[in-house]
Write a structure and sequence with these properties.
3-stranded antiparallel β-sheet, 15 helices, single chain
């Protein structure tokens, strides 16, 4: 155990010697594995992180200077004329056709709250096609690539970067490989893992979950910035010529993946960082709002905003703070590199008091009845204050946001509502194209991205039975026209 003395000295120096309390009861193999486990944690950085985290514990943000997004950095899809929207869409398709766009999927979450043990992306909400979230999002990428080639003549590829976590990485990789990446070129599907951080008790001691295992928790979706660097993803983006990254969470079934309108708006405005938002449904909706504080942009969580500001309305009766954050962002790769190089250590830390299983003096794992320690996370939107050219794009909720966070028993933000919202959107597309819908009709992403190209398939038709409208590639595989 050549490195034992070095690790022992380091733990003593950091006042974490308790991590070795069971070491001499291990077999030689267990000792070797545990030392490797400790080395992987970067104990210096982890301990410093706790010292920083203490400063954020029970500290509410200063919202006294809170201001809404200025008009110069805000546009709304519903407020734009068709000519402007087409200009943005064309510019976005040009970037996609040139191979300058990547998608960054935040897929580290398990479906625990949905009642399953596998990754959220593998979940099926019960659509007529039976498609999973991963399949829907992969096929949207394929469709937008097709549209870019059709309108620009260039066949650029959208690289699909998927950030997994320890619990979801292997299952995600196996699932995607078993389905041939749902038709995407495997060379353009890149998986990487977000980091893990030790859990601490309130005195700064790292918690042992078992005699030979430190209690770890994912570092939040804000861990993406460090993960992009340490996994060589920023280098990969640079090598591929990717200039713009569309980052979004896995659990919004309505996400317009690699949205050309959002991308085009972002490019036209010269943005380096952007947020797609929806209008808050009401003052008390449990969603953070994008705003300005002390001249810099950030997200204030719904629990952090005062009741007075939450209910504040303008002269027309609209909520002043209505820009609801939906974890849907655009970045230039140059901005991501700058964050990695200059600001990762400055990112705000979010500290949560949790019930963390720990090992007692006898080596038995105990599940506490009340919070006994903290978990430290970073959030993806905490880079907003470092942006020099931040812009915001507001979109209709009914066509772009339906979260899937709860079981159906909750009746809100659950698989049932996600399914209903997607089918309602597809009904709107069909009716706009001249069809009549009186049953469930699902539109494959391979047929249409946002309702385009449906007239030949639906105009003058009445759909009275459950139907799946397939793309040409699917028809050739499945046979017959559906």
């Amino acid at each position: 155990m050549a490195n034992f003395d070095k690790i022992e000295r380091k733990l003593k120096q950091l006042d974490q010697s308790h991590l070795l309390q069971f070491f001499y009861t291990f077999s030689d193999e267990e000792k070797k594995n545990f030392l490797q486990h400790l080395q992987s944690l970067d104990l210096d950085a982890s301990t410093k992180l706790f010292q920083r985290a203490k400063n954020f514990l029970d500290v509410a943000p200063d919202t006294e200077d809170m201001k809404p997004i200025p008009h110069s950095q805000f546009e709304s899809e519903e407020g734009c004329d068709s000519e402007t929207l087409e200009k943005y869409r064309t510019r976005g398709l040009e970037a996609i056709g040139a191979g300058e766009v990547g998608v960054l999927l935040l897929a580290g979450g398990q479906g625990t709250r949905l009642g399953v043990t596998y990754p959220k992306g593998m979940y099926s909400v019960g659509l007529p096609s039976g498609k999973t979230i991963f399949q829907i999002q992969a096929e949207r990428i394929r469709r937008v690539q097709h549209l870019a080639k059709k309108y620009t003549g260039k066949a650029g590829k959208v690289t699909w970067y998927i950030m997994t976590s320890g619990p979801t990485d292997e299952m995600t990789e196996t699932f995607l490989k078993s389905h041939n990446s749902f038709g995407l070129d495997p060379e353009n599907v890149v998986l990487f893992k977000q980091g893990l951080l030790p859990c601490f008790d309130f005195d700064g001691k790292i918690i042992l979950e078992a005699p030979n295992l430190v209690a770890l928790a994912p570092d939040g979706n804000g861990g993406i910035y460090r993960a992009l660097n340490v996994n060589g993803i920023l280098d990969d983006m640079r090598r591929r010529g990717v200039k713009y990254i569309h980052a979004h969470s896995v659990d919004n079934i309505l996400t317009k993946v690699a949205d050309p309108v959002f991308i085009g708006y972002f490019i036209e405005k010269g943005g380096d960082c952007a947020a797609k938002v929806v209008k808050k449904a009401g003052p008390t909706e449990a969603v953070g709002v994008v705003c300005q504080i002390n001249g810099r942009f950030q997200v204030v969580e719904y629990s952090e905003i005062s009741e007075e500001k939450a209910h504040l309305r303008d002269e027309e009766g609209n909520l002043v703070y209505s820009a609801g954050n939906i974890c849907n962002h655009l970045f230039t790769t140059a901005f991501l590199q700058r964050v990695s190089d200059e600001f990762d250590e400055e990112l705000k830390l979010h500290v949560a008091k949790k019930k963390i299983p720990f090992v007692d003096d006898n080596g038995k794992t105990i599940t506490p009845e009340k919070p006994n320690g903290i978990k430290i996370e970073k959030f993806i939107f905490d880079v907003f204050p470092f942006s020099d050219r931040f812009v915001t794009w507001e979109v209709p909720r009914k066509s772009e946001f339906s979260a899937m966070k709860n079981t159906d028993s909750v009746g809100k933000d659950c698989p049932f509502t996600a399914r209903q919202d997607l089918l309602a959107l597809h009904r709107t597309y069909i009716e706009k194209a001249g069809g009549v819908v009186s049953a469930e009709v699902e539109i494959s992403p391979l047929l249409s991205y946002t309702g385009e190209g449906l007239e030949d398939r639906v105009k003058g038709k009445t759909f009275t039975e459950t139907t799946v409208l397939l793309g040409e590639e699917e028809i050739s595989i499945n046979g017959g026209r559906v």
